[in-house]
Amino acid sequence: MDEYPMTFDEFVKNFSTEEQCRDYLFKLRWPNGFECPKCGCDECWQIGDVLFECRRCRRQSSVIAGTIFQGTRKPLRAWFTAIWWITTQKNGASAEGLRQVLGLKSYETSWAWLHKIRTAMVRSDRTKLSGKVEADDFYLGGEEHGGGSGRGTGNKILVVGAVELQDNGKLGRARLGTVADASKESLIGFINSNIEKGTTVITDGWPSYSSLPSEGYGHEVYVQKRASSEEEKLPHIHLVISLLKRWLLGTHQGAISEKHMQAYLDEYVFRFNRRKSAKRGLLFYRLLEGAVATKPTTTLELYGKRIDF
Prior knowledge:
- This protein is of the alpha/beta class.
- The protein is built from eleven helices and eight strands.
- The two termini are 29 Å apart.
């Protein structure tokens, strides 16, 4: 299935009813027809408008069970509108903005919706970065305490970033992730999770990166003593970092807790890696694909309490 709306008018026409939304999710979740999530049987009875009962094991399923929409009391039309709005906002989406668009009474609800949708922005089957990649670690967050300098000081959140370098000198895809510290285990762990073996990784001279060759990577150490800033040493990843900081400040006023920082990094990466896409409807389609393939996150996990969503 590869049909998706190209304009807002098409979106309204295609998803004006709950039935249209359910049918679309059905085709996304089961493109080859129903498949029982328990036993894999492809035969079922339909019970009412929502449930499907497996003929073999009699388990009842719905198109939203096991997805980010599981347990919602709001119409799917509202969720589709939220996802369409989020993917058409080039500079990111805020919880207050979503609350106003959907007419939600509670800021908590719109905040929870955004975080649930962000979980769908990371595909389990996404390919790792490859070719030649520039990587560095940096801090996000509040002011440092004690006036210290260097890695491992202050109360900021440590993040690792990596970006592909294309032959034409332009940037390719990026990855961002929070890490506990600047140790070998943390930094190499990020690289192993996000960069293909055999890739040439360009870093500064921090010792934690020195084991990259033994991990199966090419390693170029860029040390320019005359460089007046980190941006001059590793300009490509620091351009990504600069754009990220500007985005966090402009869209979210920089007010992001350490607990949820990774979710915001995932949203930024989703947008950055699709920045050249001229088809906003395709982004809507891809995000819905992720939504039906992503396990649900409860509001208790997000907020520490249950709320209506």
